[in-house]
Specification:
The protein is built from 4 helices and 5 strands, in the order βββαβαβαα. It is α/β, with parallel strands linked by helices. The chain has a single domain, classed as YqgF/RNase H-like domain (Nucleotidyltransferase, domain 5), CATH 3.30.420.140.
Length: 146
């Protein structure tokens, strides 16, 4: 079962896909848009990628505050979740993404990616980390069941 991971931002959406076994996540692209509320093309591209890759589920990052509350960004992500479900017909799971962007920045720095090239890859890397975290938790849960 292939799963898609998304890092939803004000102007970009990072996209990652799992392998067919649902073990590893790979970043595939960053979708850019001019304005935050102009989502039609973004949703269309996500639906296209989901169809091309036989995606059965979407994991969407939920940007909680460090104190576990939901701020404005999280509320926008929940609205995006509803739009995704309507557009794709797929179940969308919200997944805690706290500090994922900082971790993605660190990974890109350690990989030697130049500062001017990091933004091109940051959201895709964040989506990969969100999805991999979800896959790892799911795998751990499955190995703990009797």
């Amino acid at each position: 079962m292939r799963i898609m991971g998304l890092d939803y931002g004000s102007k970009t959406v990072g996209v990652a896909l799992s392998d067919p076994l649902g073990l590893t996540a790979q970043g595939i692209e960053t979708i850019w848009r001019e304005k935050e509320n102009h989502l039609r093309q973004t949703l269309s591209r996500i639906a296209e990628l989901a169809g091309e890759n036989s995606v059965e589920q979407i994991v969407l990052g939920l940007p909680k505050n460090l104190n576990n509350t939901l701020g404005e960004r999280a509320k926008r992500s929940l609205e995006f979740k509803e739009a995704l479900e309507r557009r794709t017909g797929l179940p969308v799971v919200m997944w805690d993404e706290r500090l994922t962007t900082m971790e993605a920045e660190k990974v890109l720095m350690e990989a030697g990616i130049r500062r001017e090239n990091r933004k091109q890859n940051l959201d895709k890397m964040a989506a990969t980390l969100i999805l991999q975290s979800y896959l790892d938790a799911k795998h751990f849960q499955n190995t703990q069941e009797p």
